[in-house]
Write a structure and sequence with these properties.
This protein is an alpha+beta fold and 178 residues long. The strands form four sheets. Strands 3-4-5-6 form a four-stranded antiparallel β-sheet. A four-stranded antiparallel β-sheet has the order 7-8-9-10. Strands 11-12-13-14 form a four-stranded antiparallel β-sheet, covered by helices on one side. It is elongated, with a radius of gyration of 17 Å.
Length: 178
């Protein structure tokens, strides 16, 4: 399809990205908006994307086409090359997150979580695997992420509302509740 508005101009959307866009729910369609570009190379090798008013739809042969918009797209588009390679391409559209009031997208090796109180933050790799494996009670205990992944002496960590998950080669990913 070719979409036009006085604000965005005319842009083509085709293939799997078009099929994803054409099947978005009214809520997700309002969230992402109209296209602002034709199809271009995506942020990682082998990926393609279309930009939209408030996000993008990303495609690869491995992941298929998935929408990322709003604050989650804002976080994804500002990740450093290291963190972008760490989290990978989206594997879901935006959906309800694991805790009340949260939203999220999953990615090849992680997730970006958002809530009105915490904002949008990325969690990936072994820290993501540990976070995603928590029981509902422990997940509620640690809460949503409040930082992206960052370096610590000998490893990496993410902060959460009530603690942190730190990873080192010697210990793996450990949960610390505040």
């Amino acid at each position: 399809g070719i979409y036009w508005s006085a604000t965005t101009g005319a842009h083509d959307v085709y293939g799997d990205i078009y099929r994803r866009y054409a099947t978005l729910s009214p809520t997700n369609l309002a969230g992402i908006g109209l296209p602002t570009s034709g199809e271009t190379d995506g942020p990682l090798p082998g990926s393609r994307m279309n930009s939209f008013q408030r996000g993008g739809i990303y495609w690869s042969a491995t992941t298929g086409a998935h929408d990322v918009y709003g604050a989650i797209a804002g976080r994804y588009m500002t990740l450093s090359p290291t963190n972008l390679a760490g989290i990978g391409l989206p594997t879901s559209g935006e959906k309800d997150g694991p805790l009340a009031g949260s939203r999220m997208n999953t990615f090849q090796r992680g997730g970006i979580y958002w809530s009105a109180t915490t904002g949008a933050h990325d969690v990936y790799g072994d820290i993501y695997a540990r976070y995603a494996s928590l029981s509902p009670q422990n997940l509620t205990g640690i809460g949503l992420p409040t930082s992206g992944e960052y370096s610590i002496p000998g490893g990496r960590a993410n902060n959460f509302v009530n603690g942190r998950i730190a990873w080192t080669p010697a210990l793996g990913a450990q949960v610390y509740i505040a």
